[in-house]
Design goal:
Helix content: under 10%
Mean pLDDT: 90
Strand content: 35-45%
Number of helices: 4
Structural class: mainly beta
Radius of gyration: 29 Å
Number of domains: 3
Length: 351
């Protein structure tokens, strides 16, 4: 295309994990109908590491040469390029969505995470008319549907009298019908994501899109960092707290220090990590230190953690737990809590 172009809109991804918030872990892919819509309106797509820019050809007054009319939708796929993304990303909200889609709403530049809904209609044939007639849905209904969410056509009652989503069996009254009569049931299904697709993105064009393109519309997808408590396992050749050998873990950060408390490790612990460490180092003593609060995963390491013996630093800068070192909590009441661990070996006798 020839002519003068100006930005129509930008789509950007940010993540709390990264120090500059710039997230290059996902890429946008334009769906065919959107690709055609953009070509028809003299638009081009430019990819950045953290998103895309859509430019459109403009007139002398910077108005779009061919304006995309309100009511149109631009649709994209988000594909994941970094397999480690789930390790440091809070995906709890994402996991609760059926075929997740990021959408623009009102005047906010933040795209909201929603579930895509697809409706299906099934035809069922009556074999033996009766008051409590049971049938089985052939599709997969969406989560948390009730009888009121199903629409029946062809029977006296427009709703089933009951529905069991686990077995997909629903009950209707067919007593007044005849053998081989049929009826239809309409309901929302649980749509599945396409292979290698993380989420969909849908931008609805409305009246808020500027007529004069002095500055582009901006839309943002934000991800939160996963939080986890940190657990340090310390292996020593001396008994912790025996005479003058008192272990402790301290954060020397003067602004926002983390607090660690000693973790009780029972002798008969069946915890996987503890069992493996005791098996590998049977002659060493094991002590645990656990953070009091959950810590957001961060690309920037914390360099102020120290191991102390009798309040004297013996390791001046402890490594942070690796993102892949996930450990179930050793506390029964917090088993659903995210926890990352790191193993330290501190020996006073090296021969």
């Amino acid at each position: 295309m020839t002519g003068r172009y100006r930005p129509l809109l930008s789509l950007k991804i940010e993540h709390e994990y990264y120090s500059d918030r710039r997230c290059d872990d996902l890429t946008f892919h334009t769906l065919p109908e959107t690709d055609q819509l953009l070509r028809n309106h003299r638009c081009i797509v430019k990819h950045r590491g953290d998103g895309i820019d859509i430019l459109t050809q403009v007139k002398e007054d910077n108005s779009a040469f061919l304006r995309i009319a309100p009511g149109n939708k631009m649709r994209f796929l988000l594909r994941l390029d970094n397999a480690r993304f789930p390790l440091f990303t809070d995906l709890r909200e994402y996991g609760n969505k059926s075929k997740p889609v990021f959408k623009n709403e009102s005047d906010s530049e933040i795209l909201l995470l929603k579930s895509q809904v697809k409706y299906v209609t099934e035809k069922h044939v009556i074999i033996e008319p009766k008051r409590n007639d049971a049938y089985t849905l052939r599709g997969q209904p969406a989560r948390e549907l009730t009888s009121d969410d199903f629409v029946i056509e062809g029977l006296p009652e427009s709703k089933p009298s009951s529905i069991d989503l686990r077995t997909k069996v629903f009950v209707v009254d067919t007593e007044s019908m005849r053998i081989n009569d049929h009826f239809e049931v309409k309901y929302a299904t649980k749509p599945a994501l396409e292979k290698n697709v993380f989420a969909h993105v849908e931008i609805s064009v409305d009246e808020s899109f500027p007529l004069i393109l002095d500055k582009p519309g901006k839309f943002l997808i934000k991800f939160k960092a996963k939080k986890a408590k940190w657990l340090y396992y310390v292996l020593t050749d001396f008994q912790n707290g025996n005479n003058e050998n008192q272990l402790s873990l301290k954060d020397s950060d003067l602004n926002s220090p983390l607090e660690f408390t000693e973790e009780s490790i029972p002798e008969n612990s069946v915890h996987e990590t503890v069992t493996e460490l005791k098996k590998r180092y049977p002659k060493l003593n094991l002590t645990g230190f656990r953070s009091g609060t959950a810590i957001p995963c961060s690309q920037t390491p914390k360099k102020t953690l120290q191991l102390l013996v009798d309040d004297e630093p013996v390791i001046a800068m402890l490594a942070n737990p690796a993102l892949s070192n996930f450990s179930p909590s050793t506390q029964v009441q917090t088993q659903s809590e995210n926890q990352l661990f790191h193993v330290i070996k501190y020996l006073t006798n090296t021969f």
